[in-house]
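Support reply, case 0932

Customer input (verbatim):
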Amino acid sequence: MKRSLREKMKVQSFSERSAFYMKAKRWHKVLFGIGITLLSLCLLFVLGIGALMLYAERHLDAAGDELLFRAARCGSVTRFYVDGGEGGGDLSSYVPTEYRSLSLGADEKFWYSYDEISENIKNAFLAAEDRKFFSHPGFDAVRTARAALNQVTHTGATYGASTITQQVVKNISGDREVTFTRKLSEILRAVHLEHKYTKEEIFEVYLNIVPMGDRLIGVGAASRDYFGKEPSELSLAEAATLVGITNAPSRYHPRLHPEASLEKRNRVLYAMLDFGVIDESVYRAACEEPLVVRAARSKEDSVRSWFIETVLDDVTHDLEEKLGMKRETLETLLMSGGLSVYTTMRPEVQSALEETFDTLAGVPEGLHYAMVVVDTQSNTLAGIVGNAGKKEGNRLLNFATVPHTPGSVLKPLALYAPLLNEKRINAATVFDDVPVAFSEREGVYTEYPHNSPNVYDGLTPVCEGLRLSKNTLAARLYEMRGAEAIYRTLYRDFGFDTLVRSRETAGGGRLTDLALAPLALGQLTDGVTLRRLTEAYSVFPSDGIMRRGRSYLAVYDGDGNLIYENPGEEKEVFSPSCARIMNQMLSRVVESGTAKGIRLADSVDTAGKTGTSGESRDRLFVGYTPYYTAGIWCGYSFGGKSVPREAPSHLAVWDSAMEKIHRARLSDVPEEKTLRFSTEGLVRREFCMDSG
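Our regenerated output:
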């Protein structure tokens, strides 16, 4: 049956409507998908911004960057001062006397204002390094993306993505790690600097801190060294030569590689032509100018003393820990921030140490010596040397600040003084000088611990046990006091933070210092530094007061503002009477015990204790007078080798250095005043050596 026209139209209309609805539905899905995608992208963008802000908050040190920027603009060297007064360790009475000024990061550094630097130099840097400097916000998005793409694909030319502002961040912070997070940090820090300072201020800092080869910092130092001119006097070709050096100072050094330097100079000139700051005729004339640089001047390598390097380490550690400043920020600040550091060094002490150790003869190859001197009256670091022989470089291993096995030097601190202080023993208390343990294996009996020499005297008073360094008596005192109490004293009162409570070895074993050998005989797992031992021994001539031996009192910025004052923390560890009894007992060690023969004792009261590690791999002595406490160590870098008998005696070296140190001091002070240890409150009595 044929359909009517109206029916056909109805069918067609229905089909069209269905098709329309289908198309609409499809478009709805497409638009919905686009919407979801856009929403997701927006959400990701917001999350990305949030993550970026969180990263910036947690990882950026805006205050540190500003401090570095201001310090860089000071353009002055770091100055170290000594106390020209009495040296009492008190900042209020400190008389700053300049000991040494040095630019720790360069041989020469001069500061020139933005207007004192020629337009040729500025234009050359802009053309070669950062043409959008005066318009970008601190980073160039296009160059950064191009460099990132090249890094991923490893194709095409190598593009330098860092702007001048980013290079300022890199140069003031010293952070040159090649990672994505470092680059992100650099960009954010650059943006912060752009908000904080003007373009001209940023450019001025850049021109004055950019490395120019030959340990020269800034265009001013380079202008004077290479061409003998001020930076405002350089020709166009000379300016381009300086700019060419910065890309790779070793490759484009104008003295060492003149041909490469000339080629690089001409490329910089072409960049200036392309940038539109010079015309064709000027470009050609500059390219034809010969490269003429001055002959290199002789420069003495700046070797820092052991004391100055100790101060640098201490300042870095303290400011990082106390003020939360980043290590790379601190290192750069100390290297080129124009700081003033008030040290505790006594120049006469440091000179005596250096004279003794620089000329020490007969030292076997590989054997090392180190010595630390603390001012007994102020408990501040007076002098330090980290090895024998003249110091010939910077950042050498300082054997006074690396851990060593203390041996019997530990006994007075861990056993004798604490038990005296607790009134559980006195100098006459008697113990049986016999081993505390015996073992038998295959018919061979072994006693423990051994005395050195292998002599056992039966009933022995405490004062004799200390004089002769009896290991058996130390074991008895260990049993009396207990491992936990000893560990607590050494860790809490003396700051021996290298002690090992428990550590698992690679083989599944366990190491601990909570045992007789480490705590009674000084055979510690990791050891303790000579500096920390010497500081601890100053508790005896200081009437039981423990103070950390500070190497500096304060640090000031280039404008004279106090950055950090190093507080003189102190606490009473032993009573004055306990400390004075220990002085008498340890004096007998020097008079007739294991440290017999020290000549200094003939002119001033001297006390101390010797110590050795197993097989004499380490030899130590920490001794003191009413003026100074000094510790000496000798041994090999990584143990395993005994100190040979023919090596210079560490006791003789200690004696020689301390005689020099005391020479001037003894001539200035009345004999009755401080030549002897205080005995106030002590009573001298005779006692039976067998029964006590």
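We compared this against your earlier run and they match. Two observations from our side: The chain has a mean pLDDT of 85. The chain has 23 helices and 22 strands. Please reopen the case if you see a mismatch on your end.
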